[in-house]
Design goal:
about 325 residues, alpha/beta, 5-stranded mixed sheet, 4-stranded antiparallel sheet, 9 helices, about 20% strand
């Protein structure tokens, strides 16, 4: 199979799409290196953009990088080439996550092409959703999207949903009692005050969403210290519709697979007219993460709690320029 030439303009356009991916606190922990001589695009994780308190094992960092890898695959398929991916190509380098080669078009990528339109439209929504239930055929499509990436999307029943929400509330209490966690979150939130870091990363105040009158929905409050005084309050859905993304094993390869599955599910949900938000808060505490899984599921390790529904779409959060995350070698 012939290899597609990696022109600077092609690679730049691919990475522009790849960096639309979600990541924990919008830290954007990815670095791309284009090896023009060998025709390989390398994906590396950036440990300087990790969360040592909330994500000490770098699982969430891998998820974000996996999501950006899936965005690159979608971008390549949309432009014609097939992105052949090799995960963890150099075991001795823990931060070298993947190698990507571009080959001729592949019929298996047709589903990826359809997702390209959602790359620029997918945004986290921390706003109230309606009580309208999602049709079963839509849920089945999201499950299938996760399976295509080697992961499982579990939609919990009523009792399990209640249990998950209780665990979410427990994680909120854990967080409120841990000054180090609160400081780490504050380092990645942007309210417009001076000295809060770059405007091309982190969670801006317009993405916080309103405060909840009654905390009924699993939405993280990035403004628990009330630094955004004009932020309104609202009632959220009483019966949130959630899903758990998980894998059978729990290591760097599975984390990268889960990141790709997460982005595929989110993009498909966007095409289906759904709004989405992500909740990792209860998964940041080992004693809570093990309790959140569905005991009837073979997906032993949960990597993300997704909130799905019909409601306002969120605004785009800032992204670092491609020149900061892509180098040519």
């Amino acid at each position: 199979m012939s290899t597609t030439a990696l022109t600077r303009s092609l690679v730049t356009s691919l990475i522009e799409d790849a960096v639309t991916a979600p990541s924990m606190h919008n830290a954007q922990p990815w670095k791309f290196v284009c090896k023009t001589g060998t025709g390989v695009i390398e994906l590396h994780g950036d440990p300087l953009r990790g969360m040592p308190v909330e994500d000490p094992h770098h699982r969430a960092l891998h998820l974000g990088c996996g999501a950006s890898l899936f965005g690159l695959r979608v971008a390549a398929a949309y432009r014609g080439p097939h992105a052949a991916v090799r995960l963890l190509p150099r075991p001795q380098d823990r931060w070298h996550f993947a190698d990507v080669e571009l080959h001729g078009a592949d019929d298996s990528d047709r589903g990826l092409v359809a997702l390209h339109a959602a790359l620029s439209r997918r945004h986290t929504s921390r706003f109230p959703f309606t009580e309208e239930r999602i049709p079963s055929e839509v849920i089945d499509g999201l499950r299938a999207a996760a399976l295509m990436e080697g992961c499982q999307l579990v939609v919990p029943g009523d009792w399990h949903t209640d249990a998950v929400l209780d665990i979410v509330h427990d994680s909120e209490r854990f967080e409120a009692a841990d000054a180090a966690v609160r400081a780490e979150i504050a380092a990645w939130t942007r309210t417009g005050a001076s000295g809060q870091g770059s405007e091309t990363e982190g969670i801006p105040s317009y993405a916080f969403g309103p405060r909840q009158y009654d905390v009924t929905s699993p939405v993280r409050d990035f403004d628990s210290r009330r630094q955004a005084p004009d932020r309104p309050s609202a009632r959220f859905e009483k019966r949130p519709q959630i899903a758990l993304l998980g894998t059978v094993e729990d290591g760097p390869r599975e984390w990268l697979q889960a990141g790709q599955a997460l982005h595929r599910v989110l993009l498909q949900a966007t095409l289906d007219g759904l709004s989405t938000s992500l909740m990792s808060q209860p998964l940041e505490w080992s004693e809570l993460r093990s309790a959140i899984r569905d005991p009837a599921s073979t997906a032993t390790f949960v990597h993300m709690v997704l909130r799905l529904g019909y409601g306002p779409h969120g605004r785009a959060t800032p992204r670092r320029p491609v020149s900061e995350v892509l180098t040519f070698d």
